[in-house]
Write a structure and sequence with these properties.
Largest sheet: 5 strands, antiparallel
Number of helices: 1
Oligomer: single chain
Number of strands: 13
Shape: globular
Strand content: 25-35%
Radius of gyration: 24 Å
Order of helices and strands: HEEEEEEEEEEEEE
Helix content: 10-25%
Strand order of the largest sheet: 1-13-12-11-8
């Protein structure tokens, strides 16, 4: 009788520890959730324009750090309506930063939430002499109101300078992202949202 009790006790302990180990594995193997973040009023000034040569430092942004950076650890950079990526070669713009990374851009016609998979490598483009990774304007321009509006249904997947990925969508070009900007609205203030994938996963 005592032998049976001991055997049952050992079996119960085995089930208990097996259950705990399985729970631990479930926690360990659960992928970290990715967070959508919003950047507001990223200022991207320039000099010149309106027929004059443009110049001025680009505002460099890092997706992993979620902030403007001054080092070479940048992924995309903004100046006026111009966007560049930290990959490829110099375009030939005045004051453009040196590209030290392997960044590239894939442009998708989709809604932000619908982009869940990183596109094929062949869809990515880099900057080069006379060419842009952001090959098409990200905005529409109204010649009557002179208002710049981000193109609807346009999402960008960026290969970062160090080979990670982020998707982002530009929401506004005006300070505080007014619903109906006009000629009096302060421009060159980007608001955009993004999701950064810090791992080697192929999805967002």
């Amino acid at each position: 009788m005592n032998t049976k009790v001991i055997q049952l006790s050992i079996f119960s302990l085995f089930l208990f520890f097996t259950s705990c180990n399985n729970d631990d594995d479930a926690v360990t193997n659960t992928p970290a959730s990715l967070e959508t973040k919003t950047v507001a009023n990223l200022y991207a000034p320039q000099t010149g324009g309106q027929g004059q040569p443009t110049a001025g430092a680009f505002t460099k942004f890092s997706f992993s750090e979620n902030e403007i950076v001054t080092s070479d650890n940048w992924d995309i950079a903004f100046r006026g309506t111009t966007l560049i990526v930290n990959g490829g070669e110099a375009i030939g713009l005045t004051d453009e930063p040196t590209r030290t990374g392997d960044g590239a851009v894939s442009t998708l016609a989709a809604t932000f939430n619908a982009v869940t998979v990183i596109p094929e490598a062949t869809t990515f483009a880099q900057d080069g002499s006379g060419t842009y990774a952001f090959s098409e304007p990200w905005y529409d321009y109204n010649p009557t109101t002179h208002v710049i509006t981000p193109k609807a249904g346009k999402v960008y997947v960026v290969k970062t300078h160090d080979g990670k990925y982020a998707k982002f969508e530009i929401l506004s070009y005006y300070q505080d992202a007014p619903a109906n900007p006009d000629m009096t609205s302060a421009s060159r203030y980007y608001t955009f949202k993004f999701v950064y994938q810090p791992n080697s996963a192929t999805h967002f």
